[in-house]
Amino acid sequence: MASSPHQTHIPLPPDPGENTITHEANLSPVPIYIVTHAGQLPSEFLEPSPERQLVIGFDCEGVDLCRNGTLCIMQLAFSDAIYLVDAIQGGEMLMKACKPALESSYITKVIHDCKRDSEALYFQFGIKLHNVVDTQIAYSLIEEQEGRTRVLADYISFVGLLADPRYCGISYVEKEEVRVLLRQDPNFWTYRPLSELMVRAAADDVRFLLYIYHKMVAKLNQQSLWYLAVRGALYCRCFCLNDNTFADWPSLPPIPEVQFDLLGWSDQMASSPHQTHIPLPPDPGENTITHEANLSPVPIYIVTHAGQLPSEFLEPSPERQLVIGFDCEGVDLCRNGTLCIMQLAFSDAIYLVDAIQGGEMLMKACKPALESSYITKVIHDCKRDSEALYFQFGIKLHNVVDTQIAYSLIEEQEGRTRVLADYISFVGLLADPRYCGISYVEKEEVRVLLRQDPNFWTYRPLSELMVRAAADDVRFLLYIYHKMVAKLNQQSLWYLAVRGALYCRCFCLNDNTFADWPSLPPIPDNLIADDNALEEEILSVLDVPPGKMGRVIGRRGASILSIKQSCNAEIFTGGTEGPPDKVFIIGPVQQVRKAEAMLRGRMLDMF
Prior knowledge:
Residues 1-20 are annotated as: Disordered. It comes from Ilex paraguariensis. InterPro entries: 3'-5'_exonuclease_dom, KH_dom, KH_dom_type_1, KH_dom_type_1_sf, RNaseH-like_sf, RNaseH_sf. The chain is of the alpha/beta class. It folds into 3 domains: 28-237, 2-Layer Sandwich (Nucleotidyltransferase, domain 5), CATH 3.30.420; 275-505, Ribonuclease H-like superfamily/Ribonuclease H (Nucleotidyltransferase, domain 5), CATH 3.30.420; 535-603, Ribosomal Protein S8, Chain: A, domain 1, CATH 3.30.1370.10. 36% of the residues lie in helices and 16% in strands. The strands form 3 sheets. It has a 7-stranded mixed sheet, with helices on both faces. A hairpin with a 4-residue loop joins strand 11 (338-345) and strand 12. Helix 13 runs parallel beside helix 17 and helix 20 (558-566) packs antiparallel against helix 21. The longest helix is centred in the N-terminal third of the chain and has 16 residues, at 87-102. It is globular and about 75 Å long.
């Protein structure tokens, strides 16, 4: 078998009662093989046999992975190796060699959400995927079996599943990096040779599956195991519609000869006023949040007029300074979208400010607080929220603590490599055991609904799901704030303040270069030293000539990534939400000027 320079770690099957994966440093690395012909695959995979039954992790990557897309890579995770089957280089012949295994009852394929993978295999290669254990289905079954309310739990993301301490308890930060690249270049998976990032990302999508499989199977009772098998088979068929109503597919697993209560899913939900739990500020050294069952619930108020808000919020005062969690929800949240809800998390209550019902008058009443230096607004990624507030309501958001910025500063302060660390998602931040260590399953549910109906946040009255989702986006922010501030040194705290102010301005471009905005925080006197003076930080906006943005971003984002790596500055583009013809640069003056020069160089016509 061809040798491979690529390696990774595969967690061992868990011991009974083990809650998290063995630290990777304690595991022996396993090889990652890039497969372009069938001879590189194990014989027990190519020749399925009842005497050599297998359980493997399985996934596919591609461009628009469905019947009309392009399946590029198929990942197979064994206990001692990972195989990346290159469907582009190996083509029809290689995939035909894999067909018996993928259709075999003797090889169990563990996968997360099999529907589109199965569709691509069926319509592109005539493969009827069979005998899968779908971890998305298994998660839902365990939730129901253990008595938790099933609210679209099937839709848990793979990142959310990995973050759940019952199954892995790890933060899959790299997934966000790949998502960024895929948004910039949907053809990411077609390029050859496979880059180190592509190999690592493909392997990461399967290397934990066998570990999760063992954890899940140990929890499932006999009834749930049957549901898992039959629903996996039905999910494989889901988008593979043909003219013979699946007559040529394997038969479904029969109901075992035991008495089942086959009443289906319960759709009952206890009625209650809107409430949630807000974690208390952490004790020194505390790693995870106090279990919610031990906390008293706090009310969630839906606010349609200013009189429903606390006076200390409406009338900011140096004698009553506040720190609150803050977020906004809307349709296409930017200058041209619609801000629908503004969430405010206090220590004893959450307020959902209804910008649709309350309108301009309600938002005008909130303006002094949002612009006040006496109220600290803790938010995750403030740029688009600030843009929406500015262009829709004339509010200049001020005095924010942006947890996305804070995360990056802590990573840098503690000496970790900064690979797009600023772009950590809120789900990823919550999953990080240093800050919360929880799985935010409901976020994926709302993402699914938003993809189906972008106007989700406009509907009134607010549904129970809308109230809970809005509250969940802010209720952990005060806890995270205390954890982060305790880690930051004085220099990082200044960076946090000044970059938060610049991020608020980022997309709020006007004709007076922000002259009517509050001044930026000055460098503290005790940080000004002759040998190591801090440099002023600025925001620069660079105009990009028509047709040149592709050159700035580069193939698969290569150009803009290389500039980011060369300069200690943040670089943002307006993307689909706009503005489309500008690049925004934030950082120390010299680094910003360096980035400007490099970006202008990318725009030059090449002769």
